[in-house]
Each structure stands twice: as structure tokens, then as C-alpha cells.
Amino acid sequence: MAAPEFVYHNGKIVPWSDATLHAFSLAGKYGIGVFEGLRGYWNDEDEQLYLFRLAEHFKRYAFSQKAMRFDPGPSEEELTQAIFDLCKANNIRCSAHLRVSAFLTNEGDMVATGPVGTTITAIPRPSASQVKKGASAQISSWIRMPDNVMPARIKCNANYHNSRLASIQAKQDGYDLPILLNSRGKVSEGPTTCIFLVKDGRLITPDVASDILESITRQTVIEIAKEYLDLTTVERDVDRSELIAADEVFHCGTGAEIAPITTIDRLPVGDGQPGSLTTKLQEIYFSLVTGKDRNHPEWRTPVY
Ligand code: PMP
């Protein structure tokens, strides 16, 4: 990754190398922080960068901080202004990934609730090649941590230890990504994505009590499937073997967008090619996020 020139760090736009944190901070020692990953999409015709579903990201960011009992940080207005300033400082005029992080800078006791530091990055990032060609998945032998251990619903840094263990295993075993089951043996999610399957024209996804992050892309897929295709998504427990029986499987998230999963444990999903419903949902999604489709203007915050 080529580092961008500037970062927002604790109230100021600073050079990338100046956004530092003490190694003995609670963030450094225990990974005590929460974050949001969001995407900006460049629209050539409008000469505009649209931030996708900023309001929903702020809502989840506030929930994560509340659940972690953080002292209040900058307001949504301040964060929005900081994002705008940062995109302009880095002259972001292409699709980009942004990360807004709140973390404890305190160098003391783990029960401290502040001070809360804030860092925002904005980095150019095109779609991954897997969006078109699909991905191979492994059902991980690691399980998603249960809600009464470390809630997956909180988007906290330390949860990514679980995602990372499963991802490393999948990579070393020759797969693109892991799919984690939960402690009840039901399908949970990918390391940074939610899972959908298509069976006999029905769209199915693990429900929000399946130890998943309540994904904004997942919610978007549910909404566009209903609105554009008149398909109601079934949210329920999903068995592992349903993934093998499915006609199509895809995963979705801000970073990964909507990407087909074409094999699971080396078995082809359906005919082993990206599925037609997956492709249709991708088309609708990309038109909306880029603003080519003008529906849902409330989902696109213009930066310029
Ligand atoms: N699950 C996990 C564990 C994630 O990290 C992410 C990425 N934020 C998702 C699902 C997808 O969430 P979203 O669509 O809000 O990016």
C-alpha cells in the first residue's frame, strides 16, 4: 500500500508519519479501539466523491463506543468535516477506502474509559479482482467468538484477532477466505464480510443473532433485493451443509463489496461460476454507490 500524504489525527490533518500512538497506550497494549471502514466512490460525470451510507457508519461507530464505555469523542459534524478536509488534502478523486478509528490513548489501567484518540485515513482502493472472478472459501476450524465472550456486533479492533487466525489458516491452506461457524455450529460470517446464499430463487443470510457484525452492506443487499427484485431475504440460522447445497453463495462488506464465492472446501458452488442473482445484485449495488442510479440520495454524502 502506498501511504497517502495526510492523515487526520486527534483534531489535526498531519503528515502520515506523524500519526503515532504510544506503545504503552491501552490501544497498543490491549488493542482497545473501535473503528468504521467506509468507502468513497468517484463519479466522473458529477466530478464527485460519494461516501456510502455515512449516517449508518456513524450510528454503528457510536454503538461500538458506547458498548466499550468510551468517553465521548468528536461529534458527527466534526468527524464529517474532518473526512471532507482529509479527502481534499489527499486530493482523493477515485474510489477510496476510509477508516475512522477511536482508541484509548491512556497509558494506565485497562478499566480507563478515556482519553479517546481519533484517527481517520483515506486511501485510494479499487475493487478487488474477486468481485468479478469470485473467491474460494474454506470452512474454518476456528469459530466466531460468541456474544458473551466478545460480541462480534461491536466493531472493535481486538475482534480482528479471531478474523486474522481464520484468514491465515485459509491462506496457508490455499483458499481466498475463511467462513467461520459460530459456537452453535451455524454459519456466522467471513473475517470481514457477511455471507448470503441463494437456493431455488430464495435469498438467505445468517440472522443478526448468529455472532455477526451487523453489516451495512448486508442491510443494503436486503434492501435492494426487496426494492429492485421483489425478493425478501430470509434471515435465520444457516447450516454448514446448506452452503454446499446452495445454487449461489456470495459475501459482502464495505471493503470486499459484493463478491461471489465459487468454491467451498474445494466443492463448486452451483456450477462453480459467479451466479446470476449475485451478478444482478452487484450491478444494482455499483450503480447506487457510484450515484449512476440516483435512487437513495441519502446513501451518498458528497465530499466536494
Ligand atoms: N463482518 C465483519 C467481521 C466485518 O469486519 C465487516 C466489515 N466491516 C463486515 C462483516 C461487513 O460490514 P460492512 O458491510 O458494514 O462493512
TrEMBL record:
Tell me its EC number(s), please.
Answer: 2.6.1.42
Question: What InterPro entries does UniProt report for this protein, alphabetically?
Answer: Aminotrans_IV, Aminotransferase-like, B_amino_transI, BCAT-like_C, BCAT-like_N, Class-IV_PLP-Dep_Aminotrnsfr
Q: Where are the transmembrane segments?
A: none
Q: What class of enzyme is it?
A: transferase
What Gene Ontology terms describe what this protein does at the molecular function level?
L-isoleucine-2-oxoglutarate transaminase activity; L-leucine-2-oxoglutarate transaminase activity; L-valine-2-oxoglutarate transaminase activity
Pathway stated in the Swiss-Prot or TrEMBL entry: Amino-acid biosynthesis; L-leucine biosynthesis; L-leucine from 3-methyl-2-oxobutanoate: step 4/4; Amino-acid biosynthesis; L-valine biosynthesis; L-valine from pyruvate: step 4/4; Amino-acid biosynthesis; L-isoleucine biosynthesis; L-isoleucine from 2-oxobutanoate: step 4/4
What biological function has been recorded for the protein in this entry?
Acts on leucine, isoleucine and valine.
The family classification in the record reads: Belongs to the class-IV pyridoxal-phosphate-dependent aminotransferase family.
What is the name attached to this protein's record? Branched-chain-amino-acid aminotransferase
Name of the encoding gene? ilvE
